[in-house]
Amino acid sequence: MTMDVPSKRAMRFSGRKSQTKAASRRGRFATRSVTTGTLVRRTHGNTAQAAAAPAPSSADVLMDLDTPGLSAALRTVIEDLPANEIISFIEAVTGNDASDGLDPTLWGPSPSTAEATRAHMVNLAARFADRQAVLTQSITRAAAAQLLGISDQAVSDRLAAGDLVGLKDGRAWKLPAWQFDADTESGWLPGIAQLRQHFPTGPVTLTAWATTPNVDLGDHTPAAVLAAGDLDQVLLVAQARGPAAW
User: Fold this and answer.
1) Closest Cα partner for 208 from 125, 126, 120?
2) How far, in Å, CA of 83 to CA of 11, rounded?
3) Strands ordered across the beta sheet of 46-52
């Protein structure tokens, strides 16, 4: 259900678009980096760095970042900032750091800020689509209370204790339906609180994992295995995946 943002290594393998503007100068190829303003002259395949050119304008940077992912509202807010502050802001949002410690001779050049922004926005859009899908398969706090035969406040107490998971839809709580089971003693799947200790993520990612068949669980979903009472096996699988897998 979720889409992982491409790693820097993966993006390096796929190559990056040129960030330079070319001009013919007496048969030589000269380029200027949009983000650094540095002139680079290439002669017969060799590259030599020349004197620094004037820093790019904010318009240059925004043109380099021309992508549907950069909303009109955000563009309006940042377009009056100095170019270097725009670059710093985008890098802070996307986590794009040039000093990633990877050897460019092995992995290729780092992804540009524009490429990292596009990848981040694609992933973010997918995550919000997942959230909407979870909400459509969730019930209200009042509906949960009616199913369980307890008060609304008691449902809130179970949410606070971690026995149930929920997410906000505006001001209202919504509880994913997969965690309720009429055949269990309490009316909800056992072990959710323990599972969350090995699964340090939010309800959207947890719901995707709990409702997806898992090869380590005999191609059953974790939710089905919990319903069958095999909490220990589910916890082992969750722990084996580790935080990095989420």
Assistant:
1) 126
2) 25
3) 20-25, 28-33, 38-43, 46-52
Helical ranges in 98-243 per DSSP H: 104-107, 113-136, 141-148, 152-161, 192-197, 203-210, 222-227, 231-241
DSSP-derived letter for residue 182 is: T
Which residue from 212, 225, 231, 224 is spatially nearest to 163, judged by alpha carbons? 231
Q: Are 181 and 189 in contact (CB under 8 A)?
A: yes
Residue type, 160: A
**pLDDT by residue (tens digit) across 229-245?**
999 999 999 988 765 45
Digit-coded pLDDT (tens) for 66-80: 544 556 656 666 666
Q: Do the beta carbons of residue 178 and residue 210 sit within 8 Å?
A: yes
